[in-house]
Amino acid sequence: LAHGNGGRFMRELIEHLFAKYLDNAWLDTxxxxxxxxxxxxxxxxxxxxxxxxxxxxxxxxxNIGSLAIHGTVNDLAVAGATPRYLSLNAFIEEGLEIAVxxxxxxxxxxxxxxxxxxxxxxxxxxxxxxxxxxxxxxxxGVGQRNRSINLGIDKIQTGDCILLSGTAGDHGCAVLLARExxxxxxxxxxxxxxxxxxxxxxxxxxxxxxxxxPTRGGIATVAHEMAxxxxxxxxxxxxxxxxxxxxxxxxxxxxxxxxxLACEGRxxxxxxxxxxxxxxxxxxxxxxxxxxxxxxxxxxxxxxxLETALGGERILExxxxxxxxxxx
Amino acid sequence: xxxxxxxxxxxxxxxxxxxxxxxGFRPFICRLAHExxxxxxxxxxxxxxxxxxxxxxxxxxxxxDRLIKNxxxxxxxxxxxxxxxEPDDLDTxxxxxxxxxxxxxxxxxxxYYLCGDCLAEMSDPNQRRYRYPFINCTQCGPRxxxxxxxxxxxxxxxxxEFELCSDCREEYENRLDRRFHAQPLACPLCGPSxxxxxxxxxxxxxTGKALTACIEALRAGAIVAVKGVGGYHLICDASSVAVVxxxxxxxxxxxxPFAVLLPWRGQxxxxxxxxxxxxxxxxxxxxxxxxxxxVLVEKRNGSPLAESVAPxxxxxxxxxxxxxxxxxxxxxxxxxxxxxxxxxxxxPVMIDEDEVERRLSRVADxxxxxxxxxxxxxxxxxxxxxxxxxxxLRLGRGCAPLEMTLPFTLQEPVxxxxxHMKNAIALAWDDRAVISPHIGDLxxxxxxEVFEQTIDELATLYGIxxxxxxxxxxxxYRSSRWAEQSGLPVTQVFHHHAHASALAGEYGLFExxxxxxxxxxxYGEDGTIWGGEALLGKPxxxxxxxxxxxxxxxxxxxAGREPWRSAAALFWExxxxxxxxxxxxxxxxxxxxxxxxxxxxxxxGRLFDAAxxxxxxVSKADYDGQAPMELEALSADGGPGPMLxxxxxxxxxxxxxxxxxxxxxxxxxxxKSERAGQFHASLAETIRGQAIRIRxxxxxxxxxxxxxxxxxxxxxxxxxxxxxxxGFEVYLPERLPANDAGISYGQxxxxxxx
Lengths: 328, 754
Ligand SMILES: [Fe+3]
Ligand SMILES: [Mg+2]
Ligand SMILES: [Zn+2]
Ligand SMILES: [Zn+2]
What we know:
The complex is a heterodimer of chains A (328) and B (754). Chain A has 328 residues and is an alpha+beta fold. Chain A folds into 2 domains: 7-146, CATH 3.30.1330.10; 153-315, PurM-like C-terminal domain (Phosphoribosyl-aminoimidazole Synthetase, Chain A, domain 2). Chain A has helices at residues 7-22, 64-78, 98-115, 170-179, 196-202, 218-230, 245-254, 276-285, and strands at residues 43-52, 58-59, 62-63, 82-93, 118-127, 135-146, 161-164, 208-212, 233-237, 268-271, 292-298, 303-307, 313-315. In chain A, the strands form 3 sheets. A 7-stranded mixed beta sheet of chain A has the order 8-10-7-11-9-12-13. In chain A, strands 1-6-4-5 form a 4-stranded mixed beta sheet. In chain A, strands 2-3 form a two-stranded antiparallel ribbon. In chain A, strand 12 and strand 13 (313-315) form a beta hairpin. The radius of gyration of chain A is 21 Å and the shape is globular. With 754 residues, chain B is of the alpha/beta class. Chain B has an 11-stranded mixed beta sheet, with helices on both faces. At the A-B interface, helix 7 and strand 13 of A face helix 11, strand 23, helix 14 and helix 16 of B. The complex binds fe (iii) ion, magnesium ion and zinc ion (2 copies). Chain B: The active site is at residues 26, 44. Chain B: One of its GO terms (molecular function) is acylphosphatase activity.
């Protein structure tokens, strides 16, 4: 890909790549804005926006194209909305192979189809060489939510149960291995996927309080958000948290806690204790065979505790970076 | 015999400070006055004792002399001041009610052993406290773990709910009785009792029967959680291989050494000790000291102790019974008992009946509870003889809170929150510092709770209001994060500066010296992980003059638990491979090459780990310190070992290069013991080499050794020998542990000296 002078080149790029793969009833590459029907009597409009960068652009189980769709759709889904329309900004670095871009946009289109969403508006910019990591996407998502839905992190109460829809840390681990060219020999794939089927299945559960997709910082980081919202203790149970054997092994070798590794296709849901079993059943019914009740919200100081297999209660700290050693 | 002039009545008012509370000091004063036929009164003001003494002047002189000289064994009184006073119209000597005031001269006594008088009484069938597990007097019994608040009176202790029976009250009020004002005073009629609970079976509430049932269970091979003074122990038969194995399986501790509780036998109580171990005179003295700590003593060959009690090391931690309950248990059982803290790895010892039943349900078969509440935990202290002196490895029951006098006076009270592992906190005000008992590794929920409880309660007990917090520079220590959230002004101290200052502070050394601060890890001034540093200067002014060749530790904290990682990394650092590495390294090496979770360190502790792994001893540690401990145990004299090249880096720091150690450790012409011995010798030689080199440019006569590595007797004693040969004066911590338990005190010295 060359930087070019805008004009014809950009038009061709848009027509031959973006418009071709992402074509739908609403997308008009010549229009300045798109008009969408919306029923506002029963629904409210939900909007989210997110930027996507990932190194490497392609990884087992996905690439930045599909990730951008899943990430945006999931933010709407966990808020209780049905994702409908997306807008896309693509920032492409000069020098990116067209063949790569082609694959990314194709996966993007496939992800849209799978999630039942359309990209209805977009823009493309080409960045000078060295200004971007190949490609960035900025995606805005629009969805609709039934006005009766009342979810929020502030709804969490002491005694609530915490569920996770699948194994923790697959995405973070898969990307890590792909990035460092570890010559991955196993079959570990990113879990990147839409969580809408799961969130939809839970929505009418009366005890449902809150859902979140544990992306950056993993389930431990979401647990911290929950703990501060409720000003209480979130206790996770080591033996209950589903973790892929391969993730376990890699995390063990590298000295990481898998609880901090990102997921891109999981939901953490907080449910009143009385509805926890039903929520679990519904998650499993929505195709999440490994879903589990992984912890609970307790009275106590604002903290996240991991009950270990031996009955110990380890503090899971809020982390930003590689942890510095503390063992003296 | 007396001059007429000395016959007239005089009065003096004395102020006595020091360790005078909870140690039977007032009753002693009372008896003394009575003996000398003097009248007056004694009064406890929180922290100090005030005395009005009147009578013949020469008798008063004798009183003042004996007041210090003949003080009870646990008391450490100082006559702070005295002045003559107007004689009062008094014909007896009495103890007045305590006056509480917010004075800062309070002393919180630690928990004491069972004194000889009480032991004799407990063993006498004619006494009403025959075989009573809670017998105590002013000279013995619990203190720190049962004081709710000061002044130290019964109503302010965990004994407040036990109302004295008439016999006990008589003793309590009789100034000639050794139980006069013994606050935890108790008897079978009015005091605490035992309950034995066999999990899932039955509860035996009667003290005598509970004890019998407990002994039966122990004989049958049960693991029993026993409530003591500062917490619960897991107790079982130490001579049974099968029982010890079961405890190891349930606790998931494959090799961690267990302490052994031996019966008190013979006149001096030491007969059993001689059967199981080979103690020297210093160890024997400490074993029977009122502190009653765990003492590391050389194992005796062919002793009936199961080898698995302390596998892989040459010493065994021995403790003699400290409370009446432990005397009864060991005496009735007759043999050695494993007595390991009832906790989950790294957490403080458990003190609560419900918690123990709940969290140790899969470990203990039965529980021996009593109903005297433990208000705060105090784990057993641990001591080891290094370089001729008994030195603490852990401060606990009997020896903490530990009081230190500061070499300066503080304007306002400060709290030092210590490190992350082996945490102990310190409070300081005026010219005093008080170091808490061992708390534990702060990464667990309960450690954090005990950490906060200890801070709150010590501050309350001593009546001080903390104005400033001092913390380690490591941003991720739990203690650092707590400090940042405390809302108080915070000062940071670098880990190794704290180690060096702890040593300087203990000896009052405030002139330039060189301190080797060798340990596992600590956050250094340059943002890398330090651990093999030689710091030049004095408190408040340390600068790094010596260190080790840096290397990256793969997996960060994981390397602290898995010594094989350090071994592999040393080879990678030299562009080589450790061929015999017992684990696949492909993935780890790639991460290491990409500097992914592989922080740079100059840690001496990790070198010990590497050596231990290279000799095939410990590749994954079961407990903190296992790798160096087993390496030390294996080592024998193997000659001097390779010289490590010493050169200045671009910052002028003298760095010793560990590379030659790798070839030596792999040299199969030497036995493993010789290689382990050479490793110690090389490192001791490295200390000498750095000291000599640094002396060429800086005038230094004094060398300090501080940090966890100097719990290694072999390295420490060799290093001291070499340094003395070069004319250096060498200092090693003696009152505080060399490990991170001493960090909080060092933080105070460092932050407040500047
Ligand atoms: Fe240290
Ligand atoms: Mg997002
Ligand atoms: Zn006594
Ligand atoms: Zn009584």
